[in-house]
């Protein structure tokens, strides 16, 4: 694997509130803490870490990743349960895509059980809190190395 591998880590709506509300579900780490964990887990690889509350912005960033990234990690938050646009954008990618959730949506309300992202993803990590981001970075690096 080249040292210059770029991994996009995209975060969807309300994840900017992490650490401030519902710590019993989402933990006490802020998104800035989680970004730091990703940077440490990535070693020499480059992390592009972003959050938006807007569906179209996520689509724009996924399209950007087609040109600039070797792997993409996405916590789509609630848009995972609603967005055909995210599904379609992710389906255009040929790089590994990891869907990530802090909680385990399958163990929560029924409306969280379906994901439009899962069927466009290489794999899914859910239920491990902030540590899931480190696991996702490791999984992304493994996939990038396999393809090198
Ligand atoms: O477990 C996850 O990571 C989720 O993607 C989080 C989403 C939820 O809609 C998904 O079903 C599972 C919600 C993100 C909201 O984040 C908050 C953070 C702090 C306080 C309130 C909401």
Write structural notes for this entry.
The active site is at residues 26, 101. With 148 residues, the protein is an alpha/beta fold. The chain contains five helices and five strands; from the N terminus they run E-H-H-E-H-E-H-E-E-H. Helix 2 (31-42) packs parallel to helix 5. The longest helix is centred in the last third of the chain and has 17 residues, at 131-147. 34% of the residues are buried. The model has no long low-confidence stretch (mean pLDDT 96). Bound molecules: ligand CA2.
As for the number of domains, it is 1
- Name the structural class: alpha/beta
Q: What is the overall number of helices?
A: 5
Give the distinct bound molecules: ligand CA2
Which homologous superfamily in CATH is the superfamily?
Dehydroquinase, class II
Are there runs of 5+ residues with pLDDT below 50, and where? none
Query: Between the first and last Cα atoms, what is the distance in angstroms?
Result: 6 Å
Which range does the strand content fall in?
15-25%
Note the run of SSEs as H and E: EHHEHEHEEH
The Rg value, from CA coordinates, equals 14 Å
Mean pLDDT: 96
Q: How would the global form be characterised?
A: globular
In the sheet with the most strands, the strands line up as 2-1-3-4-5
Helix content: 25-40%
CATH class: Alpha Beta
- Tally the beta strands: 5
* CATH topology category name: Rossmann fold
Biggest sheet architecture: 5 strands, parallel
The assigned CATH architecture is: 3-Layer(aba) Sandwich
